[in-house]
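ASSEMBLY PREDICTION REQUEST
Request ID: AP-0331
Submitted by: J.K., bench scientist
Number of chains: two
Total residues: 828
Priority: normal
Notes: Please return the full assembly, not individual chains.
Input sequences:
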Amino acid sequence: MASFSTTATLDEPQVSRGNEGGAPPIFGGGDDGRAGRGLPDYPTRLRRARLGLLVALTPVLMLFVSFTSAYVVRQGLPTVDPRTNQLVRDWIPVKLPGLLWVNTLVLLLSSVGMELARRQMKVRAAAVTTRQMGQVPVSAERKAPWLAITIALGLSFLLGQWMAWKRLGASGFYVATTPSSSFVYLLTGAHAVHLMGGVVALLVAGLFVLLRRPVTTRSIVVDVAGWYWHFMAALWVYILCLLEFAR
Amino acid sequence: MATHELAAHAAHAHAAPQGFIRKYIFSLDHKVIGLQYFFLALVAVFTGIFLSLLMRIHLIWPTASLPFFGEIKPETYLSLLTMHGTIMVFFVLTTAPQGGFGNYFLPIQIGAPDMAFPVLNMLSFWTTFLGFIVLVAAFFVTGGAPLHGWTGYAPLSALPSAGPGEGLGADLWIISIAIFCIGALMGALNFITTTLDMRAKGMTLMRMPLTCWAWFVTAILGLLAFGVLLSAGILLLMDRNLGTSFFVPLVTVNGVLTGHKGGSPLLWQHLFWFFGHPEVYIAILPAMGLCSQLLSVFSRKPIFGYKAMVYAILAIGFLGFMVWGHHMFMSGMSPYTAFAFSIMTMGIGVPSAIKTFNWLGTMWRGKIRFSSPMLFAIGFVSLFVVGGISGPFLAQPVLDIYLHETYFVIAHFHLIMGVASIFGIFAATYYWFPKMFGRMMNETLAKTHFWVTFVGAYAIFMPMHYYGMAGGLRRYSQGTEVAWIHKLAPIQQFITFAAFITIAGQFIFLFNLFWSMKKGEKAADNPWEATTLEWITATPPPHDNFGGITPVVHHGPYEYSVPGAPRDFVMQTDAPVAPKH
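STATUS: Completed
Returned structure:
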């Protein structure tokens, strides 16, 4: 498979030791060694966390793709009416509460707040790492409580969704009333559970402030939570469109 | 003399734990977690074997009264069948090759100190463990374990009143699967991120051992498949407990309308098999990667067609998502749809044949060392070919409609998915035991174990093909009441006695495993003279895998019998070849 020259001796495995500098390996390259070993630096940790998030979002996406598939299939299915023995449709379109649009606005605003919090934290992390490198620190101490605002808006959204459920129930649509109402509860509920995960991540980031964890660590948590939050906002817009326009 | 490449290294991402709890129970070390998965799978496999033993006894002595169990009723037989399949598929075939050996060796083989997210790794194991406990708990609740088979077809699985075991037992079954999905997803996340982001210097993708490729692609399959199974499980739980009708049509149980209407049992089948077929590859791809590795190591030859093997793994993974409909030919699907699924299914034969050809090419004119890992690797190839060859039969809708409800299908998937994968697990155990425990397993016992298992597997499953073709129906707890099946009883008796002997043979393995941990011969760091990174480190590996050393990779993983080399293998970290002038 490989060509070989006898100019190299092969008595023992070749390894690296210590932090003594040295040239990169002759054949190393491509996607090699970007990460290095041990506790990596901030950019590496950030990249790894983002990659992890990207991978983690895949099954979430698959979950909702699967629900959508079930939605489309179930919508087109007739059922037998036991009284007449005829095929009938049991899919009764649900009129969504107007509150959901308000909730959508709240979630989109929270996404804006999240982005500002993410950028704010990133600037601060950059300032810290610059300071560590002995360079002139970047002034990044302007503090607006974007993280707290995002958490508040997120919780408001969840509360709004709960109230929307109440209104749905008041209008006679419960989870088993009709397959369309089953999907409304399923999709909004599954989204809410995932968003709660985002709220928990943001609370953890807030807790890190109290615990005086390094700014870089907080920045990574907020960054990843931020992208997750944006995904949740986009996912919600998709769900709302599905429920509203494919009734 | 060796020259040393120099590179920075920092402390391990998490310090070596000291207390027993942090070191062995809630460990963040991928090696400990790998062993935890391995021992969980070991408990699960013997549980599953025990259930199959009860089934085999019942099939030939249906009225026998067993100690502690009494007479096995038909519904109990179905519970045994369900739990055997579920335990084996999820907690053995998915858990051991990926969670066990993958966890232990993926980071080491790519030169990383640990998985990308150690806490998540620990959580994935304990989530899986919880899933197993919840599943086994189904045996002990009112009504017992569910009857609906490991595929959980609705409406049987969706109606608590449909039979004993379909109450709380079925709820626990679904919850267990959902928990397992979450654990598997966490694991897949770690495998993919680790492979993409934590490879050592010089470990390009095309220098990765085929084991790593297999674990990587398996993780991608899991990432795409388990989310779908989770969604199906949520819908099923809602049908059962909230009165929705996703999967349940207008149906009566004992003459009473259930209150459901309009749901589609076929929707469950589509969602389930969209997961279920890739699951076959989740079970067997790691074994394929491992056996590629072993055939090269023990033939002292480079793997034949490394790139073709990589592309074949990718092709199998991709095509694995295109063929789920072949499990549903019986459902009355359009002939055109069936035709498409049939063609795609047979298409998988192409990368599978490439792999088989390359395995044979690797062994061809090799200096083969018939050590126990190699025997199991060759056994894997044999079972893969024999079990796989009946796949194109079943891929034909017209043949499948005849064979689908028979033991032919049981024989097919047990050979290809069950026993072949198990051979991969055995091969991995014998191969990596010295690295994991610092001692060698007893070779005589290992070879005895191989021959008993190899001959036993064929003795069990080859007659089963004939039994199926002759009309022997699966899922029937008793064949005594049906004339033509009754005539086939001697085949069932032969299979059961073969199973007794084969199961007894597994205790040789069990004894060898635990005996060798304490009494086995001390292992050298590289007892098989292999090239990959796990063999450059100490035995067992230190906490950070390489003892504060950063491996730098200069060679591919299969450089054996290289012309001009001073020995017949070139470690991946050996000095680079200087250009000729």
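REVIEWER COMMENTS: The CA atoms of residues 54 and 67 of chain B lie 11 Å apart.
SIGN-OFF: pending second reviewer
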